[in-house]
């Protein structure tokens, strides 16, 4: 990728993050409920002076533009602020919960994207046949089933037939690798199914388009084996829309992971985010959304870099 294009992509990343920070900051303040009132609760000793004192102590007495400048300047220095409830640094709170979410999202992406390529190639190879129609119907079903519902169904089914299995909760990988994977495999499958269904259809469509190009007909005329035509000539060009959709689906994956975590009791960013919303914990909520957005934008930035690797014409 040329240096000029790389600078443009980096500038886009900065602009997106800045826009998200402003929108997040404003929308959170529009959520009904006051953080100070929630923190003080139903305490009979609450007085206007005490409310004003607490608002001043956590900086909520300042105008919103001042609050935003104070927060974003801290973010630029690497300081995400402190939790309103625990007083701990927000970075530490996020760091404690981000690894289960990242591991779950990565495992789901590996399963979904890894299986989508051979399945999409197979669907293109069997175009018009019974198996192609069956797999297309299966992909439609996979796209329409909500991940959280599938997760609930898997828990109910396995709890009836294999009640001894540990399906809920989370164990750090380095403490118990087998226990970690056994608890994450079900939520990963629930998240991966829609991704697998969507990407397999993309690969099938791109492969069918590639197989109709002149260079494929030329390769066949030269006697190149069909397997080599599929995986060397056609698949390379079909990977461009595939990579594009992987970047787009990352946003769905992060959002879906937050919901599926609640179903499987995984202590990831989903639990942290919902707790921050209920508590009106502004610094924690703002920073969590910003981190999730950063991961999504970073993945799409990496996708842009992969374009140049797959097809040098994209970066020219």
From TrEMBL:
SUPFAM superfamilies annotated for this entry?
Answer: MetI-like (SSF161098)
User: GO CC annotations?
Assistant: plasma membrane
A Pfam family: BPD_transp_1_N
Q: What is its main location?
A: membrane
Q: Which spans are transmembrane here? A: 12-31, 104-126, 138-161, 181-203, 238-264, 284-310
- Membrane topology reported for the UniProt record: Multi-pass membrane protein
For this UniProt record, give its keywords in alphabetical order, as a comma-separated list: Cell membrane, Membrane, Transmembrane, Transmembrane helix, Transport
A GO term for molecular function: dipeptide transmembrane transporter activity
Q: Where in the cell is it found?
A: Cell membrane
Indicate the segments forming the ABC transmembrane type-1 domain, all copies: 98-307
Similarity annotation:
Belongs to the binding-protein-dependent transport system permease family.
Report the protein name in the record: ABC transporter permease
Please report the organism this UniProt entry assigns to the protein: Salinarimonas soli
């Amino acid at each position: 990728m040329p240096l000029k294009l790389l600078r443009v992509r980096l500038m886009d990343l900065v602009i997106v993050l800045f826009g998200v920070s402003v929108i997040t900051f404003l929308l959170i303040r529009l959520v009904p409920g006051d953080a100070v009132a929630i923190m003080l609760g139903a305490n009979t000793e609450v007085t206007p002076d005490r409310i004003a004192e607490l608002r001043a102590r956590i900086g909520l007495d300042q105008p919103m533009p001042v609050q935003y400048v104070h927060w974003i300047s801290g973010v630029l220095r690497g300081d995400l602020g402190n939790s309103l409830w625990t007083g701990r640094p927000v970075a530490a709170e996020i760091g404690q919960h981000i690894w289960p979410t990242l591991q779950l999202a990565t495992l789901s992406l590996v399963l979904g994207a890894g299986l989508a390529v051979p399945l999409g190639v197979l669907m293109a190879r069997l175009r018009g046949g019974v198996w192609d129609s069956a797999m297309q119907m299966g992909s439609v079903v996979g796209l329409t089933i909500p991940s959280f519902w599938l997760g609930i169904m898997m828990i109910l089914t396995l709890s009836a037939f294999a009640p001894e299995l540990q399906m809920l909760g989370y164990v750090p990988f380095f403490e118990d690798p087998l226990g970690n994977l056994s608890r994450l495999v079900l939520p990963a499958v629930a998240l991966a199914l829609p991704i697998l269904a969507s990407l397999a259809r993309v690969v099938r469509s791109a492969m069918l388009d590639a197989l109709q190009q002149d260079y494929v007909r030329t390769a066949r005329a030269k006697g190149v084996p069909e397997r080599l035509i599929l995986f060397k000539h056609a698949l390379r060009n079909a990977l461009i829309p595939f990579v594009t959709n992987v970047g787009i689906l990352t946003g769905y994956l992060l959002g879906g992971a937050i919901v599926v975590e609640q179903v499987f009791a995984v202590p990831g960013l989903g639990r942290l985010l919902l707790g921050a919303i209920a508590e009106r914990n502004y610094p924690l909520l703002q920073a969590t959304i910003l981190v999730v957005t950063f991961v999504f934008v970073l993945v799409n930035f990496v996708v842009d870099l992969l374009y140049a690797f797959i097809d040098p014409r994209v970066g020219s």
